[in-house]
């Protein structure tokens, strides 16, 4: 007879045979595998990157939208793990790419935290919003900066994430990368990427302002040239 512990272990270790046996024995794919945190078998499989077990659980009617006690879905777990096959399996089964946990972290925030460039690209292609804001008004790029994840930073910037965005403390991703208390050997690379992006954003804004000012002056010159004709018409 399949046991709960055996079922959980199968999901954690990717043991398809044991997981299938547990389901056939009547164990629910939606049971609470961890009472303290509220994790489900699907969370365990996703957290460990076991796409085949994920597919098996979904076939067994696992709730793909189930959340743990922090509001994390299985897609959050897969995004943090970064396994491309696990993410693909969940997305193909219509996992919610906009799902947010109790801190309003989306799956893209989770992927950004863990530095998985391929995961970020897959989530963005599926519709994840690079402008999504968490409970502190931080974007995924803020998270990538705080955790000093250059791969995440690069992927998000390529997807047009705003390097000048500010959270509710008026801090940019660059500020967080510079002053984060998270130890990382990638601090210099992260800061350099964000410095370059912020400088480029300032240049782009300055160029836009210049074009608008030139357009305004051109319109004013046109109005002045037409003024004599307007005066004549009135006379």
TrEMBL record:
- Coiled-coil ranges (or none): 191-222
Question: Tell me, which GO biological process terms does this entry list?
Answer: protein K6-linked ubiquitination
Q: Where does each ANK repeat begin and end?
A: 37-69, 70-102, 103-135, 136-168
MF-aspect GO terms: ubiquitin-protein transferase activity
Q: Which SMART domains match?
A: ANK (SM00248)
Any idea which UniProt keywords this protein has?
A: ANK repeat, Coiled coil, Repeat
- Kindly indicate whether the keyword Repeat belongs to this entry: yes
Q: Which PANTHER family match?
A: ANKYRIN REPEAT DOMAIN-CONTAINING PROTEIN 39-RELATED, BRCA1-ASSOCIATED RING DOMAIN PROTEIN 1
Its protein name is Uncharacterized protein
Q: Name the lineage.
A: Eukaryota, Sar, Alveolata, Dinophyceae, Suessiales
């Amino acid at each position: 007879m399949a046991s709960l512990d055996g079922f959980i272990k199968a999901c954690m270790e990717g043991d398809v045979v044991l997981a299938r046996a547990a389901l056939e024995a009547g164990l629910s794919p939606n049971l609470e595998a961890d009472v303290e945190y509220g994790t489900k078998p699907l969370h365990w499989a996703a957290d460990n990157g076991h796409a085949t077990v994920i597919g098996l659980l979904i076939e067994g009617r696992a709730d793909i939208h189930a959340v743990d006690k922090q509001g994390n879905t299985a897609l959050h777990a897969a995004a943090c793990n970064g396994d491309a096959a696990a993410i693909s399996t969940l997305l193909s089964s219509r996992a919610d790419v906009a799902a947010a946990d109790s801190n309003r972290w989306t799956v893209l925030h989770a992927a950004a935290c863990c530095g998985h460039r391929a995961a970020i690209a897959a989530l963005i292609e599926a519709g994840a919003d690079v402008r999504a804001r968490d409970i502190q008004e931080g974007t995924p790029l803020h998270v990538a900066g705080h955790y000093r994840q250059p791969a995440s930073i690069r992927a998000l910037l390529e997807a047009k994430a705003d390097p000048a965005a500010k959270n509710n403390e008026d801090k940019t991703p660059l500020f967080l990368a510079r002053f984060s208390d998270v130890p990382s050997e990638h601090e210099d690379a992260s800061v350099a990427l964000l410095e370059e992006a912020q400088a480029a954003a300032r240049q782009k804004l300055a160029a836009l302002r210049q074009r608008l000012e030139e357009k305004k002056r051109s319109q004013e010159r046109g109005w002045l040239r037409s003024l004599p004709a307007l005066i004549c018409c009135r006379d």
